[in-house]
Amino acid sequence: MLALASSPSSSPVIRLGIRTRLGIRASSGLTVRRRPPPSDEVGVDGGRLAFPEIGAAKRVVLVRHGQSTWNEEGRIQGSSDHSVLTTKGEAQAETSRQMLLSDTFDVCFTSPLIRSKRTAEIIWDARMEEMIPESDLREIDLYSFQTPNSPIAAGASAGRKARNRIILVCHGTTQSNDEVSFSSAVDKPMNMLGIIQSQKTAELLLDLKVNPIICTPSIASIDTSMTISKVQEAADCLGADCIPRYVEVKKMEAFAFDTVQEIWDEGGRAWDTLLQELADESEPGKNVVVVGHPAIHIALIVRCLNLTKEWLGSFHLDAGSISVIDFPDGPDGRGVIRCVNYTAHLGRWSIPITRSTLDDEEF
User: Fold this and answer.
1) Which band of pLDDT confidence, cut at 50, 70 and 90, is reported for residue 329?
2) How confident is the model over 206-248, as pLDDT tens digits?
3) Residue 171 known to be catalytic
4) Among 39, 71, 262, 282, which is most exposed with the fewest C-beta within 10 angstroms?
5) 177 and 130, same structural domain?
């Protein structure tokens, strides 16, 4: 399912005290402005077709279909249209509907495949606009791999179990009146909204045994880490575990960044530190929580994907959000981005998904 939402018109790019090609938002992520590349499509006359101009800022929300019967069986679906949503898949679609209930959308495009169309119907619900089926949104053809007698063993396509995991937690909103400031010199405690966000994050992580918690030395990061640690160590009292948990809280060295290059360099050092932490085999199946500023977390994600610093502006993280990186082959293997900027656990305390980040300073 693909939904399109309008966004307010653009405002001047926020800079880091220097002129850079990246416009950066400190409270929740990075934005980049680039001239769109020309289309490679060729018209009937042999000339190149240009993409139509977009007159106003837009936002696209992508929703994956809920669990299908073939997902449950661990089979590859491809473009086949035999599977339907399971009860769990219907519930997942309903959760997405509730998450997007208060947001405004102009149009909804959906794959015509049954599993996707049903997911879209649940989410779109009573909205008056008709859904638009788009065949180009179908999954790719996988031919013999998607037959009832798939050569892929049951469960193999459902994904490998992660041996190690890094959970990136952005600290909650702070008391700084300058929410667009990106400098590491800005070190403010969380405001009431940020405190609630940190508590919601701690509650989400309660069902997962985490150790250690690694945080940057900022006030907001330390406070968020301590909130998560206290809830983890009370897991037995809260009924989430039968034995007490001990969680070690570690502090990274102080970060200093005022330019994109400094963010990139600090992110590289942090990435190496985290891989060394995962390499410690004294506790197999580690779940390492990293609490810090969205900028550093974005640098970690970009490093994981083996991208260059020019991609920093292509990612956005909200205050209180969670991103997950799995290492199914251990720290020596490639990291797999499980999710980015997850905020559903914040409920009403999250920033609406269709609200433009250009208004962060007014929130």
Assistant:
1) confident
2) 988 898 999 998 999 999 999 999 999 988 888 777 777 888 9
3) no
4) 282
5) no
Residue type, 299: A
Under a CB-based contact definition with an 8 Å cutoff, are residues 20 and 309 in contact? no
Q: What is the pLDDT of residues 130-179, one digit of tens each?
A: 899 998 898 877 655 555 544 333 433 344 566 789 999 999 998 764 44
Same-domain status, 215 and 99: no
Residues paired with residue 316 on neighbouring β-strands, in sequence order:
29
- 61 and 146 inside one domain: yes
DSSP state of 50: P
In the predicted structure, residue 271 carries a pLDDT above the cut 90: yes
Instruction: Give 7's strand partners.
Output: none
Q: How far apart are CA 289 and CA 226, in angstroms?
A: 12
Whether residue 122 sits in one domain with residue 79: yes
Same domain, 342 and 260: yes
3-state SS assignment for residue 215: strand
Q: What is the DSSP letter of 112?
A: S
Separation between Cα atoms, residue 284 and residue 160, nearest integer Å: 16
Q: CA 114 to CA 82: how far, in whole Å?
A: 8
**Given a cut of 80, is residue 23 above it in pLDDT?**
no
68 marked ligand binding residue: yes
How buried is residue 290: exposed, middle or buried, by Cβ count under 10 Å (0-12/13-18/19+)?
buried
Query: Are residues 305 and 169 part of one domain?
Result: yes
Is there a catalytic annotation at residue 65?
yes
Query: Residue 305: its pLDDT value, please?
Result: 94
Is it the case that residue 50 has pLDDT exceeding 60? Answer: yes
71 is an annotated ligand-binding site residue: yes
> Could you give the number of structural domains in the chain?
2
Q: Which residue out of 73, 94, 121, 139 is catalytically annotated?
A: 139
Q: Which of 156, 176, 202 is the last residue in one of the domains?
A: 156
Question: Is 67 labeled as ligand-binding?
Answer: yes
